[in-house]
Amino acid sequence: MRASDPTTETTSPEPTGRAEPTRRIMLCGTLVAAGGATLVACGGGGGGSSNSNSSDNGAKGNAPAADKTLGPVSDVPVGGGKIYDAAKVVVTQPTAGDFKAFSAVCTHQQCLVGSVTNGQIECPCHNSRYDASTGAVLGGPAPRPLPTKNVAVANGQLVLKSA
Q1: Which residues of 10-28 are buried (b: 16+ CB within 10 A; e: fewer)?
Q2: Is residue 106 a part of any domain in this protein?
Q3: Considering its fold, how many domains does the chain have in total?
Q4: Spatial contact of 138 and 71, defined as CB atoms under 8 Å apart
């Protein structure tokens, strides 16, 4: 008898014939859910703390960089060079006592250069070659010379200067 009661029919889960509003509601719900997920992805994960970490890193980045001792001058052969991976620097000695330093990051696709032979600094990734005395491009796809770095000798050690 309750099945014929009109209040039972209106709360029934049976289809009511109003599919269009349901689609709109579903579409709006989907868009809101997608937007909400995007906001959660962008704002989640402690956004406030990452901003303060960025500020801290920026403050540390503003401190003057210290000179870095690379190693003994004897590590760099005359007519050759040595790559200091950690410092991303290559030091060459074209003639006795004449030290040159360049970024060890290839200007083509930012691989680290791999060797210094026959007066050339070579990148193993795509065979770019640079002059060991000047950093100028000698061949390969490298678009620019290697940037120079300041290096000095102090007490028999090579020192990468910060400025």
Answers
A1: eeeeeeeeeeeeeeeeeee
A2: yes
A3: 2
A4: no
- Residue 34's φ and ψ, nearest 5 degrees, are -65, -45
DSSP states of 71-121: EEGGGS-TT-EEEETTTTEEEEEEETTEEEEEESB-TTT-PBP-EEETTEE
Give 10-residue mean pLDDT values along the chain (163 residues). 46 48 49 41 36 39 79 97 97 97 97 96 97 98 98 97 85
Tokens of 29: 């719900």
Looking at the DSSP bridge assignments, the partners of residue 103 are: 89
How many C-alpha atoms does 41 have within 13 Å on its Cβ side? 6
Q: Is residue 10 part of a domain?
A: no
Helix, strand, coil tally for the chain in percent (to 5)? 30, 30, 40
Q: Give this prediction's pTM.
A: 0.62
CATH code of 156's domain: 2.102.10.10
56 and 80 assigned to the same domain: no
* Residue span of the structural domain in which 26 resides: 18-62
Closest by CA to 136, choosing from 117, 116, 121, is: 121
